[in-house]
Amino acid sequence: MGFAFVNNSRINGITSLNSKMGHFDFFSVHQFNTTGVTIKAPGDSPNTDGLKFGFCSNIHISDTHIGRGDDCIAILSGVTDMDISDVKCGPGHGISVGSLGRYGKEQDVSGIRVVNCTLQETDNGLRIKTWPSAACTTTASDIHFEDIIVKNVTNPI
Question: Whole-model pTM?
Answer without folding.
Answer: 0.95
